[in-house]
């Protein structure tokens, strides 16, 4: 998977610009607040319909404009594909795939695969389980439309179940809850089984990538904290029994205490909890190793790498880890952002250098 062009109109600080990417390593440079990260964000947005930096779509529209859009053309193993998203400050976004409007995010997902990393991805290791679930959900939703649909359905039923648990009529809850639980466990089983398979595939690759980046000095191990395994039927049955057992607890608390909305991943570094004992540099390497492993997982499943977006990652790594990272991605279309090109790090690796200033392309050179 290689993105060829990115067109930005009234997106963030861009008025009307087109970026042509090379098929290998691309480095977007410029001073701070010139638009490097905005371009990286736009590529990921085109692939997923989701911004890693804005919680509302209208926030990406350029100040003073009422609408904006991003569009891209990519080459995949199945041919050329184009996606386009139109934003408005007063209405919902509109999405197009190969010129045809699609009404659901699920129809956009999977057309262009991408993996995104920026310094905020430290949340994967440092912060709440929600951040680790979001990582799994974004990756698996790109890989599987059925996963995305199961996740949407699960979240809707979970919200309805939680609302019901807050009702004061206990007899109504006892009578109605089994109906919600049947749907909840069905979709939960799809989610849990997919996550189990994903993490089983991801973990050994992440361990290998972390060993590479750390020069073999650190050993990463991952442990999923789901607690449910087996076929979807077995998972659904076990979860159903646990929901029955936990009914009084859920009633007392007013929310559902078990299920994939409580899943977590534990990272161990040399046998110790990385969240507690890992330095910030080690935690950053874990998060980056996960992203590199994620890219390999896409390659295994679809026969081609996703577009790898590494925003401001080089400034956060020492020289040794920079060199090892560049060596690891030289065969993947990668979009780096940086204030300047550390030429010694990229010695022997062909790359396209794109200079950005005030939301405009100032120069493009291939090395």
Question: What's the CATH C level of the largest domain?
Answer: Mainly Alpha
Main sheet record = 6 strands, antiparallel
List the helices and strands in order: EEEHEEEEHEHHHHEHHEEHHEHEEE
DSSP strand content: 15-25%
Integer average pLDDT: 95
Which class best fits the helix and strand makeup?
alpha/beta
Structural features, described:
By secondary structure, this protein is of the alpha/beta class. It folds into two domains: 1-113 and 306-367, P-loop containing nucleotide triphosphate hydrolases (Rossmann fold), CATH 3.40.50; 121-304, RecF/RecN/SMC, N-terminal domain (Glutathione S-transferase Yfyf (Class Pi), Chain A, domain 2, Up-down Bundle). The protein has eleven helices and 15 strands. The protein has helices at residues 36-48, 105-108, 123-126, 129-143, 145-165, 170-213, 232-245, 247-253, 274-277, 280-302, 319-329, and strands at residues 2-11, 14-20, 25-29, 67-76, 79-88, 94-97, 100-102, 114-117, 220-224, 265-269, 272-273, 307-311, 334-338, 351-357, 360-366. The strands form three sheets. It has a six-stranded antiparallel sheet. It has a six-stranded mixed sheet with strand order 8-12-13-3-14-15, sandwiched between helices. Helix 4 packs across helix 5 and helix 5 (145-165) packs across helix 6. It starts with a strand and ends with a strand. 40% of the residues are buried.
Give me some keywords for this one.
367 residues; 2 domains; 6-stranded antiparallel beta sheet; Rossmann fold; 11 helices; 6-stranded mixed beta sheet; Glutathione S-transferase Yfyf (Class Pi), Chain A, domain 2; single chain; alpha/beta
